[in-house]
Structures are given as C-alpha cells and as structure tokens.
Amino acid sequence: MLNALKQVASLLLGAGILILGNGLIGIVLPVRMSLEHVPTEFSGLVMSAYYGGLVCGCLWGQGVISRVGHIRAFAAFAGGVAATTLLFPLWFDPIVWAVLRIVIGFLMAGLFFTIESWLNLRSSKKTRGQILSLYMVTSYLASVLGQMLVNVWSVKGLELFSLGAMLLCVSLVPVVLTRVAGPDMDKVAHLSIAKLYRISPLGVVASLGSGLISGAFYGMGPVFGAEIGMSIFLISVFMGITLMGGLVMQWPIGLLSDKFDRRTVLLAVLIEYALSRTSHATTSVLVMTALFGGCAATVYPLAVAHAFDYVERDHMVAASAGMLLSWSLGATAGPLLASLIMSHGNDWALFLYLAGVSGALAAFTRYRMGRRVALPSAEQAKFAPRGEGNVAGTLDPRAKPAKA
User: Fold this and answer.
1) pTM for the full model?
2) Within a 10 A sphere around the Cβ of 116, how many other Cβ atoms?
3) Burial bucket for residue 89 (CB in 10 Å: 0-12, 13-18, 19+)
4) Superfamily of domain 2-379
5) What are phi and psi of 157, to 5 degrees?
6) Quick one: DSSP state of residue 184?
7) Taking a C-beta distance cutoff of 8 angstroms, is the pair 98, 89 a contact?
8) Which residues are CB-contacts of 388 (< 8 A; sequence separation ≥ 6)?
9) Which DSSP string do the residues of 37-63 spell out, in sequence order?
10) Beta-carbon neighbour count of residue 264 at 10 Å?
11) Are 228 and 235 a contacting pair, CB within 8 Å?
12) d(Cα 397, Cα 352) in Å, to the nearest integer?
C-alpha cells in the first residue's frame, strides 16, 4: 500500500488543490448572480452549462490523454481552467458566463479522466479500493473547504476569482514535478450508452436521475440560500454540510448494498429523500441538508455498482464513461428545470423538484425490481465509495465479471 501511495501521492495532492479551486468558483458564481439580481432561470442556464461541458468532455476528452499522456494532459487541462476562470470578472454577462462554464466543464471532465485513469492504472487490485477511497475523501474535503473560502473576500470583487485561478495553477506543481512517469493508456473495448442501457436499464436511469438531483442542488442551492436571506457564511455552511453528509453516508450505505439487493437499498434511499421535508427555519434547513446530501450522494455509486454487477470486465472503463455521461446529461438538465420551477413558484420549490425526481426514480426502481431477479450478494461487485461529477467522476474497473 505504501509503495502504491508513493506512485500517486503527487497526483492526489494536485487533485485536492484543483478541486479546492474549482469548488470555490462553483459557489462564487451563483451567489454573485443572485446578489446582482440575475433572473433565476438565467442563473440555472449558467450553472447547467458546466455540466453541458462535462458531457462534451466525456465524449472527446479522453482522446487528449491518449495523444499526449497523463502529465501533459493534466497540465493542459488545468492551465485552461485557470485561464478561463480569470475571464469571469472581466465580463459580467450571463450568456458569456454560460459559454465560459461550458469550457470549464469540458476541461474538468478531461481532468477527472486523467486523474482517475492514472489512479486506476497505477494501483493493483489489492490497493485500488484504498487509493480510490482516499481520492474520494480528498475530493470531498477539498470541495467543503472550497465552499468555505467564499468568506475570505467579497464575491463582487476580483479577489476570489484570482484565488481560485491561483489554486488551479498551483495544482500543476506537484503533478508536473513528479518523478513518477504517467501510466500508458490501455486499450478498452467500446460500449455505447444504448448497449449499456440494455445491460442495466436501472443503472443508466439512476445515473441520469442522480444527475438531475445533484446538478439542480449544487447549481441552484447557493441561489436558493441567497434568495431566502442567508448570509454568505451560512450559504457556504449550507453547501458544505451537504458535501459532508455525502461523504459520511457512503460507507454505511455501501455496506448495506453489498449485503442486500442493491435495488432495495436504492429504493429506500430514494423514498427517504423524497419524503424528507425542510421547514422555513434556517437551522432546520442546515440539519436537513445533511440528510439530503447523504441520500443524494449515494444514488450515483449505487447505480454504478448495480450496473457493474452485469458488465463484463473488458467493458468496465467504457461502462464507467457511459455512466458518467448519463449523469452529466441529467446534471445539465437539472439546474435548468429547477430554475424554471423556482421562477414560476418560489425558491422553496427547489425541494419540491428534488422530491419529485427522487419519487419518479423510486417508482422506476420498484418497476425494475419486478423485471429482473436480484443477484446473490456473493456475486455482486464490491461497492466503491465515489463522488459525482461535481466532486469527482468515476473510472473504476474493479467489478467482478458478470455471471451467466
């Protein structure tokens, strides 16, 4: 384990700093738009544009890594994100910001692929789970700290954008200066998302639904906080608690899903999420958002683990990319749909949207439970704690081959 950690220590450090900077910019933008009284639907457009860029990155970002290698790809993608970040304060225009968010989303997708394929290819079967779990913890903690950095300066100034860009640039240092060579990209079998759906309909739909939930909450959550009168500090706590809830809930939910039918665990999580309600008291919102975050963050890894129960080993990396693509499509639509509902109702309608999506996904999960017999727990792939596209994607070819 120690030797494997040495192989990826510089990458984990660089990834942590990178996600720290990206997390900061991710909360500055919606809060700034809310303070400038940008219409909610335009805020939703800007925030969904990031996930649209992720979709493009899922489709074309891997080609860059194959051509130039992991270290050069990381440098190119991170440098591009830093430069684009500095353009935000120069043009305060929702349309311009949406275009810049698309660019950043594309580059971040490339970075996630670079980081996670590097971690997978530099770890063995015995150490991969521990290294990927360490990566997930690093990602979540960096995202939480990034939310809190919004309190350092005013969101209306240049300072926070400069800090975010500086962190993105600093993330290059440990990666570029590492003496460990980046791994060679293995050839992987192609797997279309249509074929992936035929293999695991619930896995693909649940990934899409997870994106609809997470994209809407992470994109519009800061807008909601600002519109109901939360201070900048409370907004950062509000979003940070959500991420911490997601981190804490991964392991107990994962243990349950390894012992029982994953679909039953997924159904229970979705029902709990759909039935949860928040009162109009700020304290209750902060308490309930931890539960929201914990439930929402486990939907995607449960979906991936369920899909991997039926995917052949040669298709694992391609299946991971397909699941991330499905999540990104949902996350692209999530902020747009949520912002439209909020603009025609009120800010609290965000939670009605989240409950509605999770309820619909729960119904589909129950339907699929009647269409396929559950695998015995001994034949299930091991659950892997993981983040989502807003924190981290997934390229985890660890599952067992599907049995006939």
Assistant:
1) 0.81
2) 23
3) middle
4) MFS general substrate transporter like domains (1.20.1250.20)
5) -100, -175
6) P
7) no
8) 210, 211, 214, 297, 300, 327, 331
9) T--HHHHHHHHHHHHHHHHHHHHHHHH
10) 15
11) no
12) 36
Q: For the chain, how many helices (H) and strands (E)? A: 14, 0
Q: Which long-range contacts (CB under 8 A, 24 or more apart) does 277-281 make?
A: 277/351, 278/348, 278/351, 280/228, 280/348
Question: Domain segments of the chain: what residues?
Answer: 2-379
322 pLDDT tier (thresholds 50, 70, 90): confident
d(CA 142, CA 356): 30
Average pLDDT over residues 81-109: 94
Distance CA(202)–CA(205), nearest Å, equals 5
Name the amino acid, one letter, at 260.
Answer: F
- As a whole number of angstroms, the distance between CA 251 and CA 185 comes to 30
How close are the terminal C-alpha atoms of the chain, in Å?
34
Mention every residue, 6+ apart, whose C-beta is less than 8 A from residue 164.
21, 22, 24, 25, 28, 85
Rounded Cα gap, residues 152 and 89, in angstroms: 17
The enclosing H or E element of 161 equals helix 159-170
Whether the per-residue pLDDT at 33 is higher than 60: the answer is yes
